[in-house]
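stuck on whats below:

***
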Amino acid sequence: MEAIQLNNGRYHVARASLRYTCGGIFVTPDPPQVGVATTLGLYLKNAGTEPVTVSRVETMVAQFGMGVAWEHLPSLGPFHLPANSEHVEEVTCEWTPLTGGHRCVRALIHVETLPQPLRVGRNLQVIEAQAERSHWRIPFRLGNPEAERKPVVLEIVGNMRDVVDAHVLVNSRLVRAGESVWLDAREEVDAALLVGTRTESAFASVNTIEATIDGRFIDGIQVVIHRPAHIVHPAHAFASHPGRELPESVMNEVAVAAGR
């Protein structure tokens, strides 16, 4: 269990990615199921030397994506956190989704001693893949939260570029690094992350997409894929060559999208 640490009421978000990969937020069940009560929560801890009062916590949920509209849930609080690093405050609320799919969760933590609320989020999808899988298509939503037409720029960062390829499609069109996606005010569109691997070895791939508008960070998502090694029967050993091509279905989808 990872807790959000409030040291004497201070919580420094050193990287923008902590706004969407916060380990102190949990969702049960994950992913949410239509019509099933879902628990959204976060763990708070005060590792400082003075007590901390959280006046309220605002929780909101959205479709998995960036720049999308948020559904606000009732505020919770206040919460009093003693100066005790062993004490963990669990803040939870219940929400029942009307549609299925992975969700993004965001929380604004209002601390009495701070002028602005602390913003933390969880836009993280973890895939425990079967050994024979070699490609994945992860849908998400992309939006422009501004009040006027704006260009959204996406950046993709991966940890295994030597054996894992990642491409982004927006409205079924391949979007290249640094390319602007123009969206009207409050417009949301369908997008997808295509991930393919060229190795039979076990791997843990982490692919992050961040969206900016006019150079300003908007939001991000992260997709983690864990896959065990693929043991191939000797009769088909040729298929286990580490330099193999990506699956034809992935290549075809990228090729078609690139031609749009």
Observations:
- The mean pLDDT is 85.
- The radius of gyration is 21 Å.
- The first strand starts at residue 4 and ends at 5.
